[in-house]
Amino acid sequence: MKIALALVCLTLFGFTSIEHADAFAAGSIVALLSLTACYWVAFRPTKVPEFALGLLFLGLMTKLMITSLGLSVTFLTELASSPMVAVIAYFYTSVAATIYWYRHRQTHSNTDGMV
């Protein structure tokens, strides 16, 4: 239900900002890339539980690096016409992607207790 509500909000926002579709796409792509990289780094299966906090911190740093680099390149090269639309699209997409990745993690967890 949460993912459906997030996708409905994202779709409605996409329709209302149709004249700034480039900014909407840029914000959404940066959010998907940064959250996917964060998920991939932070939730790697490891046999050493002492690395868990380090992997979470590394995932956070990866997300921040990709976000800042992606949005700065987008705005410096003027790929996005409206910074506000890009930021709001980033927010909505990051909420939807976070819900998706955590749901994916819950449904595809291993049987031995390691994720």
From TrEMBL:
Signal peptide start-end: 1-21
Record key words, sorted: Membrane, Signal, Transmembrane, Transmembrane helix, Ubiquinone
Transmembrane segments: 24-43, 55-77, 83-102
Protein name, UniProt field: NADH:ubiquinone oxidoreductase
